[in-house]
TrEMBL record:
Sorted UniProt keywords: Actin-binding
Species classification: Eukaryota, Metazoa, Ecdysozoa, Nematoda, Chromadorea
GO cellular component, one term: cell cortex
Alphabetized SMART domains for the sequence: PROF
Keyword Hydrolase included in the entry's annotation: no
UniProt xrefs under Pfam families: Profilin
Family in the record: Belongs to the profilin family.
GO MF term list: actin monomer binding
Residues spanning the signal sequence: none
Superkingdom classification of source: Eukaryota
Residue stretches spanning the membrane: none
Protein name: Profilin
Length: 123
């Protein structure tokens, strides 16, 4: 399912129609941060794939399925988007990976650094 706009000239043609999580999936995923303690018992779904969640930490969810997975980090401040003047959104970073433990460690570090950068920048 292609959910990304194809008229974004900054994206290379090959990445204009990658699988993307649905709006419903993303809303459900964002709500996981409301009660991180329960996430390992239920897991998480992204792009129609169910991931086990072996652990969570403050504002961090780690999902795994076979040799792939994701890290998701939530910034601690709210991000106001001009798309909807009456809504406030929290920035959530999700990075997917495929590979062994070394790859997952690198992805985790990158996600945590980006979340820290956004927080320090006021997001």
């Amino acid at each position: 399912m292609c959910q990304h706009p194809t008229d974004v000239p900054s994206l290379p043609p090959a990445s204009r129609c990658l699988p993307w999580a649905t709006e419903a999936e993303l809303k459900k995923f964002v709500s996981l941060f409301d009660n991180l303690a329960n996430v390992p018992s239920t897991g998480a779904d992204l792009e129609e794939v169910h991931y086990i969640v072996p652990r969570t930490e403050e504002n961090l969810i780690f999902g795994k399925k076979d040799k792939s997975g994701f890290f998701a980090a939530k910034t601690k401040t709210d991000l106001f988007l001009l798309i909807n003047e009456n809504a406030t959104f929290t920035a959530i970073l999700i990075a997917m990976y495929e590979g062994e433990n070394q790859v997952s460690a690198e992805v985790r570090t990158a996600v945590e650094k980006m979340a820290k950068y956004l927080e320090d920048s006021g997001y």
